[in-house]
Amino acid sequence: MFSAEPTRRDSRRGQAIRTSWSLLWLFFLTPVVHDLATGGYGPVRLIVGGCGLLVVVVCYIALVFGGVGWDGQFGRVKPVLHLLLDTERNRQWSCLVLWAVSVGLILTFDDNWLGLMVYVSVSVGAGLRLPQSMWATLGCVLSGLALGAFLGTAAANLLVLAFITVLTGGLMIGMRRLMETLLELREAREIVARLSANEERLRMARDLHDVLGHSLSLITLKSELAGRFLPGHVDRAAEQVADIERVSRQALVDVREAVAGYRRPTLAVELAGARIAARAVGIELTVLPEQWPVCSDPEAEAVLAWVLREAVTNTMRHSGARRCTVELGTGPVWSLDVADDGRGSAGPEGHGLTGLRERLAQVDGSVRIGTPAGERGFRLTASVPVRPGKDTDRLIAPEVTR
Fold first, then answer.
1. Which residues contact 111 (CB under 8 A, 6 or more apart)?
2. For 303-335, how does the pLDDT look when each residue is reduced to its tens digit (9 = 90+)?
3. Three-class HEC string of 132-151
4. By mean pLDDT, which of 37-41, 281-285, 365-369, 379-383 is the weakest?
5. What is the rounded distance in angstroms from the CA atom of residue 87 to the CA atom of residue 71?
6. Residue 237, CB half-sphere, CA atoms under 13 Å: how many?
7. Which residues pair with 344 in a beta bridge?
8. Euclidean distance between CA atoms 288 and 270, whole angstroms
9. Reading across the β-sheet that carries 333-340, which strands appear in turn?
């Protein structure tokens, strides 16, 4: 996988953490650089060692940041990464070049350079697909052991080198698989969103056909009949026109009811949106109980959904809170309580709360606002009488909208 964009748009802090974590592996170059600087080598070997290290570092950065999809942090070199690593064969050749250069440097100098096998292991783990990456990591371990034995390295040091090589290679294989899974999940989420939108369009088309199809057909038929009755039978034509007016008025009422149904929010949708919003801004959202029953009264549910949307939006945007609790109470009167630990109310009510009071008044509900007892923050409690129905035994799943 060579991802053109990172799997997630990180903040600057997130990018810095991930970049630092990846570049942390350059620590293993310390003995190599120290040996090159203090080993008393001649100019030719210094040039060979410096150029070889440059090739190793470039291949490592390209394979790691390109293979796991972090090249978005290096926008200027992204075209070069694509050119070099956009095919599986190119990545295989890059890993082979990195391995060959590392082996050549180890043989040219001494066993202080065996740490380069760690870079090869990390690079093949990030740049190659399974099972190639597993076999390549095993090859790095065997190569390191063979080179160490040839150069007379102590057995204990060889065991440490083998362990680190396997550990780092396996870690990058897991990281690459994790990034691939995240990318697949993002693509699946986009597909689900498109399918949901298509399903909603089909539902709207069916509803509009059911609502308007019969009425428009009847209006067309009545119009044709009125035209045939004119000018000879004015009275009968007037009857048809009166029928057209009655049918068209009923069609207008049906359309308004359908549109009102489309616009009506639900607790399931608003609760899912609240979870997403809280996660995005770093607020700990607690929902009590974990599963909510489905409201049997659509009108009351719509009002409570508006309350939930307005209260959570105010908490996310204005409160500065770190925690927010949403609690639903059921019975003849449903209550929705939203409380946070933010800075509280700092002025008169805005248009949002005024609008909530008006909505609740239309369904004989009420709303109370204030500060939680003995605490800081803001609390909003709304109560609405609910008509009993047959759906009260169904539950809203914690993370799924209905």
1. 147, 148, 151, 152, 153, 157
2. 888 888 888 888 877 777 888 889 988 888 899
3. HHHHHHHHHHHHHHHHHHHC
4. 37-41
5. 15
6. 10
7. none
8. 15
9. 284-288, 323-329, 333-340, 378-385, 366-370
Write down the residue that tokens 């996310």 correspond to. Answer: 316
DSSP assignment letter at 109: S
Contact yes or no for 320/343 (Cβ under 8 A): yes
Residue type, 367: V
Separation CA 237–CA 223 (nearest Å): 9
The first and second tokens of residue 272, run together, are: 């899912």
3-state class of 324 per DSSP? strand
| Confidence (pTM) | 0.46
Answer for the pair 278, 285: CB distance below 8 angstroms, yes or no: yes
CA of residue 175 relative to chain centroid, distance: 18
Beta-bridged to residue 28, according to DSSP, are none
- CA–CA distances in Å: residue 135 to residues 113, 337, 347: 22, 57, 66
Q: For residues 20 and 298, what is the distance between their CA atoms, to the nearest angstrom? A: 52
Q: What is the DSSP string of 330-393?
A: -SSEEEEEEEE-SS---SS--HHHHHHHHHHHHTT-EEEEE--TTS-SEEEEEEEE----S-TT
Residue type for position 377: G
CA dist list (Å): 23 to 27, 68, 127: 8, 14, 16
Residue 196 has phi, psi (to 5 degrees) of -65, -40
Nearest to 98 by CA among 130, 129, 139: 139
Distance, CA of 158 to CA of 178 (rounded, Å): 30
| Residue 316 burial (10 A CB sphere; 0-12, 13-18, 19+) | buried
CA distance 70 to 110: 34
Q: Which amino acid is at 226?
A: A
Mean pLDDT of 100-114: 82
DSSP reduced 3-state for 288: strand
pLDDT of 224 higher than 80: yes
> Is the bond preceding residue 265 a cis peptide, omega within 30 degrees?
no
Is the confidence at residue 283, as pLDDT, over 80?
Answer: yes
Instruction: List phi, psi (to 5°) of 325.
Output: -120, 130
Give tens-digit pLDDT for 3-56: 434 434 444 555 566 566 666 667 767 778 877 878 777 788 888 888 888 888
Task: Please provide the distance, in angstroms rounded to a whole number, between the alpha carbons at the two ends of the chain.
Answer: 35
